[in-house]
Amino acid sequence: MKFNNGDIIHGFRVTNLSHIQEVDSDAYLMQHEKSGARLLYLANNDDNKVFFISFRTTPDNSKGTPHIMEHSTLCGSRKFPLKEPFVELAKGSLNTFLNAITWPDKTMYPIASRNDKDFHNLMDVYLDAVFYPDCLKNPQILMQEGWHYELDNVDAPLTYNGVVYNEMKGALSSPEAIMEDKAMEELFPDTTYGVESGGDPEVIPTLSFREFSEFHRRFYHPSNSYIYLYGDMDIDETLKFIDQKYLSHFDARNVYSAVKTQSPLPKRKIVEAPFGISENESLEKKTIHALYIALNDHITTEESLAFKILSYVLVDMDGAPLKKAVLDAGIGNDVSSAYGDSYKQPVWTIEVTGSEIDKREKFISTVDLVLRNLALDGIDRNMLEAALNRTEFILRENDFQGKPKGLLYGVRAMDLWLYDRDPMQALKYIDDIKELRNNLDKGYFENLLLKYVIKNTHQVLITMKPERGLTEKKNKETAEKLAAFKSSLSHEQLEEIVESTKALKERQASMETEEALKTIPLLSRKDLKREIEDDSLIEEDLNGIRHFHYEVNTMGITYLNIFFTLYGLKEEDIPYANLLTSILCSMNTDKHSYVELSRLSNAYTGGLGFNVSAYSRYDNSADYTPVFAIRGKALTSNVDKLMGLIGEVLCHTSFEDTARLREILLQEKSEWDMSVFSRGSSLVMARLSSYFSKAGAFAEQLGLSYYYFLSDLVRDFDANSDEIVRRLAEVAKIIFAKSNLFIETIGESGEVSAVKDHLYEIADDLPDGNVYQKHTFDFAEGNKNEAFLTSGKVQYVGEGGDFRKYGFNYTGALRVMETILRYEYLWKKVRVQGGAYGAFTQFLSDGTAILCSYRDPNLKQTLETYKNLPEYIRTLELSDREMTKYVIGTMAADEIQLTPSMKGERAMLHYLNGNSVENRRKVNDEIVNCTVEDIRKLAPLLQSVIDHSSICVMGNEEKIHQDADVFDKILSLPD
Question: What are phi and psi of 194, to 5 degrees?
Answer without folding.
Answer: -85, -5
